[in-house]
Specification:
Domain HMA: 23-91
Strand order of the largest sheet: 2-3-1-4
InterPro entries: Heavy-metal-associated_CS, HMA_dom, HMA_dom_sf
Helix content: 25-40%
Keywords: Metal-binding
Oligomer: single chain
Number of strands: 4
Protein name: Heavy metal-associated domain-containing protein
Length: 93
């Protein structure tokens, strides 16, 4: 990343992956402890209609931050059900 800044280049992949009208749902999830947990949550959330991508900031044994990317708003109950199907718990902020 430092080389790109020094050369004055712009990373266009980030803007191409997320359209200007993109919706990002921020979710808090407890119970995840490892990469396998992250993979399980990503897999279940990716199956929800409209989900285009999932990123996870794992806090092992704590409350992890999960961001779900989509072009339109998503069904909140479906997101919660997907997390529970993976074996974890969604908590309120």
């Amino acid at each position: 990343m430092t080389d790109r800044i020094q050369l004055g280049l712009t990373d266009v992949s980030a803007s191409a992956a997320a359209p200007a009208s993109a919706v990002n749902e921020e979710l808090l999830v407890t119970g995840m402890t490892c990469a396998h947990c992250v993979a399980s949550v990503r897999e279940e959330l990716s199956e929800v209609d409209g989900v285009e991508g999932v990123s996870v900031d794992l806090v092992a044994g704590g409350t992890s931050h999960v961001t779900v990317h989509s072009a339109t708003p998503l069904d909140d109950d479906a997101l919660t059900a997907a997390i529970e199907e993976a074996g974890y718990t969604r908590v309120s902020a």
